[in-house]
Amino acid sequence: MGRAKGRKTMSTKQAKADGPGISGADAEQGGDGTVGKALAVLDLVAQAGRPVRFTDILAISPYPKATLYRLLQTLTHQGMLAYDADSQNYALGVRLVRLAHAAWSQSSLAPLARPWLDRLSAELGETLHLAQLDQGQVLYVDKRNAARPVEMFSQAGKVGPAYCTGVGKAMLAFLPEAAKQQAVARQSFYRFTPKTLGSREELLAELGEIRKSGHAFDREEHEPGIICLAVPVLSSGGSVLGALSVTSTTTRNSLDGLEQLAPQLKACASAIAADVEAWRFPERKQI
């Protein structure tokens, strides 16, 4: 009974903080082998957003106590997790930081987009986000703050929901049909604000409109007072590479005002996509 109560409390807090993450059921589907289980445990620790105790992880883990303990011991020994004996807390380890830095460096999108984001940021003076889709969720890979920064959830390296963010909807709308349906099925439709889309049907209807217009809005759906316009970053073949957004507040801008920036956003997204393709397929570059 105590464990069930803990599970409910943790998942509710996490939904409010970070949006739909990997649930115990999702973790269980991540793989029956040791590697799959270990990766699922890493995800659970990462999504807590803070150091967590064994009992906290156990409350949201699909694994038995003994199995979870062995996985945590292995991950700690390998440097993937760090354990503080005084507080009895687990946190992500330094080895993961090194791997994350290497992954960012080897990823073509974020490094190649950097100069384009710098240029667009100087032109617009508003907050910019660059994101990719990760298992139906939004992974923010880069950000440029406005001249007058706004406090908001999104930061580079954070994972957030796709169904109620501009970048998330921009990417979902341009996925192949089967991939789109699969990603939509993973959404929790937790209502962050009164304006959050609350069902699969609502989301699919909006994705159809986004595909026609080529851009998506966040109408205070994730955070009150925060609005954004987003466009997909698409390859020449139409594959989704990521999404780019401009974000503002309802006190200093409007959705109509942001929509006026769509041509600049789309031009920037096209330039990023062209650089990514040139990097991935250098033989296609004209000499």
UniProtKB/TrEMBL annotation:
UniProt keywords, alphabetically: DNA-binding, Transcription, Transcription regulation
Q: Where does the IclR-ED domain lie? A: 95-278
Q: Which residues form the HTH iclR-type domain?
A: 32-94
Q: Which Pfam families match?
A: HTH_IclR, IclR_C
Where do the segments described as Disordered lie? 1-29
Give me the stretches of Basic residues compositional bias.
1-10
Molecular function, one GO term:
DNA-binding transcription factor activity
Tell me which domain of life the UniProt entry assigns to the organism this sequence originates from.
Answer: Bacteria
One annotated GO biological process: negative regulation of DNA-templated transcription
Keyword presence, Transcription regulation? yes
- State if Metal-binding is listed as a keyword: no
Q: State the PROSITE patterns in the record.
A: HTH_ICLR, ICLR_ED
Name listed for the protein in its UniProt record: Pectin degradation repressor protein kdgR
| UniProt organism field | Pannonibacter phragmitetus
